[in-house]
Amino acid sequence: MLAYTIRRLLLTIPLLFIALYLVHVGVSATTDPLAPFYLCLPRCQDGYDQIVEAYNLDVSIWVRPFIWFGNALQGDLGYSTSIGAPVTEVLADRAWNTALIAVPAFLIGSTVAVLLSVYSARHQYSFGDYFFTGLSFLGLAMPAFVLALVIQNIFGVQLENWFGIKPFNTGRKTGETPLEVARDVFLPAMSLAILGIAAESRFGRATMLENLEQDYIRTARAKGVRERRVVWRHALRNALIPLVTLWALSLSALLGGAVVTETIFSWPGLGTAFLRALGDVDLDLILGITLFTALITILFNLLADIMYGVLDPRIRLD
Amino acid sequence: MDQPTDRPTGVEHGIAGSGGEVRSFAYSDVLTSDEAVALEGLSEKPKSFGRLAWERFLRHRLALIGAIGLVLIALLFIVAPWFSDYAFDERNVRDRLLGPSWDHWFGTDEIGRDLFVRTAQGGRYSLRIGLTVAVLATVFGALMGAIAGYFGGWIDNVVSQLVNLILVVPALIVLSVWALKFGSSANQLSIVLAALLWTRIARVVRGVVFQIKEQEFVMAARAAGASHGRIIVRHVMPNFVGVIAVEITLLLGTAIVLESTLSFLGLGVKPPNASLGTLVADAKGSIDNDPIRVLTPGFFIVLIVLFVNFLGDGLRDALDPKSKAEH
C-alpha cells in the first residue's frame, strides 16, 4: 500500500510540472503586462523597467516558468497583483472561505443522497421513488448558475418581500459570530448541495438496487437478520464502495472553488479569486490556484483509490 | 482471455457494464429484448409480463419524449423567428423593458430588442456549439481511445497521461488563453470545448478495445486472413457503436451546459452573438424586478439538457441487450 502510494505520487510530479509549465507559457504568450507602457514610453522608462524586472520579461518565454518553479520550490509563490497580497496568504485566506461553503455542502449533500438512494431502492417504483428520481433528473439538467440565481431570488428577494424581513444574506461574507457566518454560508452551500444530491442519489439508487438483489442479502434475510440491519449494515456498506470514488471527486471539485456559485453569491473564495485573476491577468495567482487545485485533485483521486482498496478487500492495488 | 460473465458492481453503471460485456456480432443478431427478458426471467426474481411491459413502455416513452422534445425545441428556434417582425439585433428604444405581450412574446430588453427572437437565436447558437462539440469530441476521443487500447504499451501511457493533464489544468485557463489567441467565434469555442471533453469517451473506448483485441474471435478473424481494416470495422467497432451513441448524446447536454456557463461568466460567446448563457447573464441585473426574464433562457437550457438525458438513458437501455428494465 505504501509503495503504491509513493509510486502514484511520484508519477504525478512530472504531470504537475508540465501542467504548470503550459499554463505559464500559455498565459504569458497571450498577454502583455507592458501594454499600458507603450504609449508613454520615453517618459515612463522607470515603470517599464520595473515591470520587465518583476515579470522577468528579459528572459525567454520558455525559460520563465523555471524561475517560477525555483521560487515555488522555496515556498515563494509570488505576489498577487489583483488582490494585493502574497499568493500564499491569498490562497490560505480564500481556501478557508471556500471550505466554509464546500464542507457543509458536501456533508449535507452526501447524507441526503445516501438517505434518498436507500429510500428509492427500498421502495422501487413507488410514488416517492418516481418523485425523487424526477427531481434528480431535473437537478442534473440544471446548470449551476441557473440554480444559484433561482435560489438567490427565491430566498433572498421574494421571501424578503413576502415577510418584510431579511432572512437570508444573498451574498458576500459579512458575519462575525458563528450564527452570522452560518447565515452567510446557508444559500451558497445549499446550491452546491442540491447539485451534489442530484448527481449522487441516482447513482446511489442504482448501486443500492444492485446490492439488494445479491445472494448475500438473501442469506442474511434467511438467517433471520432484521430487515433494518440487512439494509443499513449489509447492503448499504457495499453500495457505498463505488460512491466513495464519486465523493472524493466531488469534494475535490468543491474545495477547488465553485466559480459560478461563488460569483453569484459574491463569496470571497478561490473561485471568485480565480476568475478575477484570469480577468486581470494576475499570473502568480493563476499559477498558485492551479497548483492548489491540481494538488487537491491528485490527492483526492489517490485517496479514492486507496479507500476503495480499504473498503473492499477484494480490490488489490498494485 | 476469460469472457467476463457478470458486470462489476456499480462504477459507471451501464456504460462500463456494456463495455465489459463483449460481443462480436451486430445488434440485429442479438436476441430481441423480449426473448432476452424471458431468458433472464429464468434465473431472476420473476416479474409479471405486465410489469415488464409497463417498465419498457416507461423507459422508451421517456426516450421518445426526449427525442420529440428536442426536435420541437430545434424547430421552435429555427422556424418561429420567421413569423416574428423583429430581427435579433434590432433596437427599438421606445419599447424597452416591455413585459411579454402578443407583439413581443418574451418581452424586450434594455435597448428594446425582442427577447423571443434573441432567445431563439441564442438557442440556435447554443445547439450548434453543443452539436459541434459532441461530434468533434466523440470522433477525437474514440480515435485516441482506440489507438491507446489497440497498441497499448507506451502509447497507452502517453494517452492516459494526456487525459490526466487535461483533468489537472483548469478549463477556464485553457479557454481564456485560447480565446485571446484565436478569438471566441462559435467554431473556436467548439474546438476548445471538444479538446476538454474528449477524455471520457477515450477512456470508455479504450476499455472496450483493450478487451476485444484479446478475444478469440479477433484472433480467428486474423487467422482467417482478415485485414486490420476489416477486423476494426466488422469485429471491433460494433462493440462500441452503442456506447458511443450514448456518449455522444450525453455529451451534447454537457457541452450545452458548459458553453452556457462560460458565456454566463463572460468567457464564452461574445456580443453581438448571443447564446442562452449570455441571455441569462444579460438578464441577471434585473432579476429582482423581472425574474421571468432570467428564467426563460434558463428554462430552455434545463429543458434541452433534460431531453438529452432522457434520450441518452433510453439509448443506453435500448442498445444494451443485457440491460433490465430499470429507472
CATH class category of the largest domain in chain A: Mainly Alpha
What is the count of β-strands of chain A? 2
Strand order of the largest sheet of chain A: 1-2
User: How many domains make up the coordinates of chain B?
Assistant: 2
| Count of individual helical segments of chain B | 12
Indicate the CATH architecture of the largest domain in chain B.
Answer: Orthogonal Bundle
> So what's the overall shape of chain B?
elongated
Task: Specify the CATH homologous superfamily of the largest domain in chain B.
Answer: MetI-like
Reported CATH architecture of the largest domain in chain A: Orthogonal Bundle
What is the succession of H and E elements of chain A?
Answer: HHHEEHHHHHHHHH
Quick synopsis:
The complex is a heterodimer of chains A (318) and B (327). Chain A is mainly alpha-helical. Chain A has helices at residues 2-30, 45-55, 64-73, 87-122, 127-141, 144-163, 178-212, 215-222, 227-255, 259-264, 270-280, 283-311, and strands spanning 79-80, 85-86.
Overview of this protein structure:
The complex is a heterodimer of chains A (318) and B (327). With 318 residues, chain A is mainly α. Chain A folds into two domains: 2-76, no CATH class; 87-311, Orthogonal Bundle (MetI-like fold). Chain A is built from twelve helices and two strands. Chain A has a two-stranded antiparallel ribbon. In chain A, helix 4 (87-122) crosses helix 7, helix 4 (87-122) runs parallel beside helix 12 (283-311) and helix 7 (178-212) packs across helix 9 (227-255). Chain A is flat and about 90 Å long. The model of chain A has no long low-confidence stretch (mean pLDDT 85). Chain B is an all-alpha fold. Chain B has two domains: 1-46, no CATH class; 49-319, MetI-like (MetI-like fold, Orthogonal Bundle). Chain B has helices at residues 15-20, 33-43, 49-79, 115-151, 153-168, 171-182, 186-197, 199-212, 216-223, 228-265, 276-284, 291-319. In chain B, helix 4 (115-151) runs parallel beside helix 8. The longest helix of chain B has 38 residues, at 228-265. Residues 1-33 and 323-327 of chain B have low confidence and may be disordered. The interface between A and B is large, with 53 and 45 residues.
